[in-house]
Amino acid sequence: MTNSAGKVSSVALSVGIATGVYGISFGALSVTAGFDIWQTLALSVLMFSGGSQFAFVAVGFADLATAVTSAWLVGVRNGFYALSLAPMLETKGLRKIVAAQLTIDETAAVSTSRQTLDEQRKGFWLTGISVFVFWNLATVLGAFLGEQIGDPETFGLDAAAAVALFALVWPRIQSSAGAVIASTAIIASVLFSMVLPSGPPVLLGALCAVLVGFALNRGKRE
Amino acid sequence: MNSWFAIITASAAVFSWKYLGHLVPRRLLESKFLQKLAGYLTIALLAGLVGVQTFIGTNSATNRQEIVFDARFAALIVAFVLLKFKAPFIVIVLAGAATAALLRFNF
After folding, report:
1. Which of A58, A187, B14, B43 is most buried, by CB atoms within 10 Å?
2. How far apart are CA B6 and CA A130, in angstroms?
3. What angle do CA A85, A9, A80 make, to 5 degrees?
């Protein structure tokens, strides 16, 4: 990464600003999905994981149980970031809880791109604080904008939701395995939607896609 | 389910992964299988949501879900092209929204 040469504080700041911009779209999508401003802000403060938050409001009121399950499953990768960050941070007690909450894509990316332990720790904490501040400010701003707009179909906000998720998954589907898994998930979820109400189709479709992914893996090894 | 209850539960559920990862001795969860599963699940869930949000519509006459190709599909194609050209995230989202809005406005 080229910016590993830059000062860790300026990297943290720019990452925060970048995710803030994207927090505006989350805020707007959440209120147009039917959540109020406080609920939208609560999601950004308490859940604090973009992918899970988008997944949660995308399913939303159509099926809240599936919204919870989807957010939970999308959040599993944070646990794996935590595994690699824990030995680096060596936190205890309350600090560990704060560190856990700040364990997301951005903090993992910045801190693991650093060479020395000191820089890795600084990278984690500065990026975590920066993203947390900008993400939540942007969420509120987006929520106000979304409230002005009202109907999500005006200004194409429903399409923006699909496009935002697509852009999030894009870097992960550049491998052939990723592309096959994504295509399977899209097709299966759409087909399940023909026969089942909103919610379960996405989970069932994902299950099919994961199985296809593992089958592909096995085929390659043999 | 109450929406506040859903928000709190989902937030706690997401936090549980984060905290678990910080607690568990590294070797216990350092399995190739689990790492693969986590990666695959993320791709599959996000892609599945993209599929449903783009291609599923409710037929107003029968009130049933059906496959539709509308302004949202056009927005996704625009996003695909922009992603190929490595456009920034916010540009992609705005362009997608604008595409859908303009198509609906004109037809």
Report:
1. B14
2. 27
3. 15
Residues of B numbered 25-44 whose beta carbons fall under 8 angstroms of chain A's beta carbons: which are they?
26, 29-30, 34-44
SS3 of residue A139 by DSSP: helix
Q: Which residues of chain B have pLDDT under 70?
A: 26-30, 107
Tell me what pLDDT residue B26 has: 65
> Which among B43, B45, B97 has the least Cβ separation from residue A202?
B45
Domain ranges of chain A: 2-154, 174-222
B57 inside 8 A of chain A by CB: no
- Closest CB to B92 among A87, A163, A214: A163
Q: So what's the ipTM on this one?
A: 0.87
Percentage of chain B beyond pLDDT 70 is 94
Selection from A3, A20, A4 nearest residue A140 by Cα:
A20
**Domains of chain B, residue spans:** 1-30
pTM of the model: 0.78
Residue B65's alpha-carbon distances to A128, A186, A201, B20, in angstroms, are: 41, 16, 12, 39
Tally the residues of chain B.
107
What contacts 24+ positions apart, CB below 8 Å, involve B66-70?
B66/A194, B67/A190, B67/A194, B70/B103
User: What are the DSSP calls for A81-127, one per residue?
Assistant: HHHHHHHHH---HHHHHHHHHT-SHHHHHHHHT-SSHHHHHHHHHHH
Using CA of residue B53, residue B59, residue B62, residue B63, what is the dihedral sign? positive
B50 reaches A (C-beta below 8 A): yes
